[in-house]
Design a protein that fits this description.
Elements (H helix, E strand, L loop, with lengths): L14 E2 L6 E10 L45 H25 L18 H15 L13 E2 L2 E5 L11 H7 L9 E11 L6 H9 L2 H7 L6 E8 L12 E11 L1
Antiparallel strand pairs: 1-2, 2-5, 3-4, 5-7, 6-7
InterPro entries: CAP_dom (IPR014044), CAP_sf (IPR035940)
Organism: Microtetraspora fusca
Pfam families: CAP
C-alpha cells in the first residue's frame, strides 16, 4: 500500500473465533499511521475448553447481569423511552468496569464522550452492531448467504467485514475520524453474539472474551487507552433462529499518539 508518510509496520493478528455452543466471538486488531493500515494474517482460535475463572470485577461492577430488553418491555412514557435508550450505556459501563478490573497492572481504559456532534469509536461500534443484526451474516458460510469467509477458515463468515459495504474495523474507525489527529494509532475489535438469558449479559460476553487468547490480548493490551462496547438487540448469527433474548456485542479499542 502506498503512503506519503513512513510508518512502523507493527504486525498484529486478526483472530476471529470458531463457534462454541450458542455463543460466537471474534477479535481483530489493526495498526496504522494517519489513514494507513496494516492487517496481519487471519487464523482460527478455539476458546479454552475449561471454564474461565471468575471475573475480577464480578463483585463490584454494576449491571453485569443486565439483559437488554426490547422497547415493548418499557412503559410508553418519556421515562420509559429514556430507560430503554439508557440500556446500552449501562451495558457499556458494565463491560468497561469488568475490563478495567482485569487490567490490574496497567492503565485503565476510558470511554471519552463526543461533544457537539463529535463522533467516537463508540459510534463505529454501534453502527457495526446494528448492521450485523440487520444483515445477520455472522456464523457459518451457507449457500446463498452473503458474507466473506475468514482467511484460513472458508466455512466461517468474517464478522469484522460488512459484506454489503466492505467496511472493516479500521475503515469504520476512520469513518468517524479516529486517527485523524494522531501521528500513529491502533484500533482493535472484539465481537460477540449470544442467545438465551445466560448468554447475553455483559458478564457472559466478557467471560468468553477473557477465556479466549485473542480477545484477552486485546483487553489486556497496555497500549490501548480507550474502549467502547456497544450492543444491538437481536442476533447477528442466523443460527439463533427465533430464540430470545439475543444480543450482539461489538467492542472497540483505540490508541492515539
Amino acid at each position: 500500500m502506498s503512503s506519503l508518510l513512513p510508518f512502523s509496520r507493527t504486525p498484529q493478528r486478526l483472530v476471529p473465533d470458531s463457534p462454541v455452543s450458542h455463543r460466537r466471538q471474534a477479535a481483530v486488531a489493526v495498526t496504522g499511521a494517519l489513514l494507513l493500515s496494516l492487517a496481519g494474517a487471519v487464523s482460527v482460535a478455539q476458546p479454552a475448553a475449561a471454564a474461565a475463572p471468575p471475573l475480577k470485577g464480578a463483585g463490584t461492577c454494576a449491571n453485569i447481569d443486565m439483559i437488554y430488553q426490547p422497547a415493548s418491555a418499557f412503559p410508553d412514557t418519556s421515562r420509559g423511552r429514556f430507560d430503554f435508550m439508557m440500556q446500552t450505556s449501562k451495558i457499556e459501563l458494565a463491560v468497561l468496569c469488568l475490563v478495567n478490573a482485569e487490567r490490574t497492572t496497567m492503565r485503565s481504559l476510558t470511554r471519552p464522550i463526543g461533544f457537539k456532534g463529535t463522533l467516537t469509536l463508540g459510534t463505529a461500534a454501534a453502527r457495526h452492531a446494528a448492521d450485523a443484526v440487520a444483515l445477520r451474516w455472522w456464523g457459518k458460510v451457507t449457500p446463498g448467504k452473503n458474507c466473506r469467509s475468514m482467511q484460513g477458515d472458508p466455512t466461517t463468515c468474517d464478522p469484522h467485514i460488512n459484506p454489503e459495504t466492505g467496511s472493516t474495523p479500521l475503515s469504520r474507525a476512520q469513518a468517524v475520524g479516529y486517527g485523524r489527529r494522531c501521528t500513529s494509532f491502533a484500533v482493535a475489535e472484539n465481537a460477540y453474539v449470544g442467545w438465551g438469558s445466560a448468554s447475553v449479559t455483559p458478564r457472559a460476553a466478557v467471560t468468553w472474551w477473557m477465556n479466549s487468547k485473542p480477545h484477552r490480548d486485546n483487553i489486556l493490551n497496555p497500549a490501548f487507552t480507550v474502549m467502547y462496547a456497544k450492543t444491538a438487540l437481536g442476533s447477528a448469527d442466523p443460527a439463533a433462529g427465533s430464540i430470545t433474548p439475543a444480543v450482539t456485542y461489538v467492542q472497540m479499542f483505540g490508541r492515539c499518539s
